[in-house]
Design brief:
alpha/beta; Rossmann fold; seven-stranded mixed β-sheet; about 25% helix
């Protein structure tokens, strides 16, 4: 699978209007989205449940003083010991059979006015590397159920066909936690 390059991700995240603050990269993997996020956020907490991913990410952190790593499963209720300004799920929700759990936990971890950014594949058909796909329509419905507001698509990314059976068109969605 072809990965997006650093500058492509920076350009995508720029559209989300991230302005400093404390952010979580939930399911950070090897840091593909962590480093671009760190160009906008005041501090990034890169969380993943896989210690090998975090070890690799730590080995790549050199001059970036605003990135810390923690082994945390974002399906657990408390991720971090304080509320955060924003949470990024960069192609990580599709690994979880019940994304409502992670999204509810994210809602509870955000400050009022905080932002969630989700980048996911648009497909509804599971494949080995996307076991639990989450279409934009389904995700919007889940976010509304959880009480996120200002839900808006940021960009639809064109397909780069992966096989005859599946392509990987994807989308970026942004929402906020605002209590009425």
């Amino acid at each position: 699978m072809r990965r997006m390059k650093f500058q492509q991700i920076v350009d995508l995240l720029k559209q989300c209007n991230i302005q400093g603050g404390l952010w979580v990269d939930a399911g950070c993997g090897n840091g593909t989205y962590t480093f671009p996020l760190a160009t906008f956020a005041g501090q990034v907490i890169a969380i993943d449940r896989n210690i090998n991913n975090l070890s690799y990410l730590k080995s790549k952190i050199s001059t970036e003083k605003n990135i810390i790593t923690q082994q945390i499963d974002f399906n657990k209720p408390i991720w971090y010991n304080q509320l955060v300004d924003g949470i990024l799920f960069g192609f990580s929700l599709h690994y979880h059979p019940v994304p409502q759990i992670a999204l509810t936990n994210a809602f509870n971890q955000l400050i009022t006015g905080g932002t969630i950014i989700i980048i996911e594949y648009a497909s509804e058909n599971p494949v080995s590397w996307v076991p639990h796909p989450l279409s934009m329509k389904k995700l919007i419905s889940l976010l509304k159920e959880i009480s996120f507001t200002n839900i808006q698509p940021v960009e639809i990314l064109p397909s780069r066909r992966m096989s005859a059976y599946w392509d990987n068109a994807s989308y970026i969605l942004k929402a906020e936690k605002n209590l009425s």
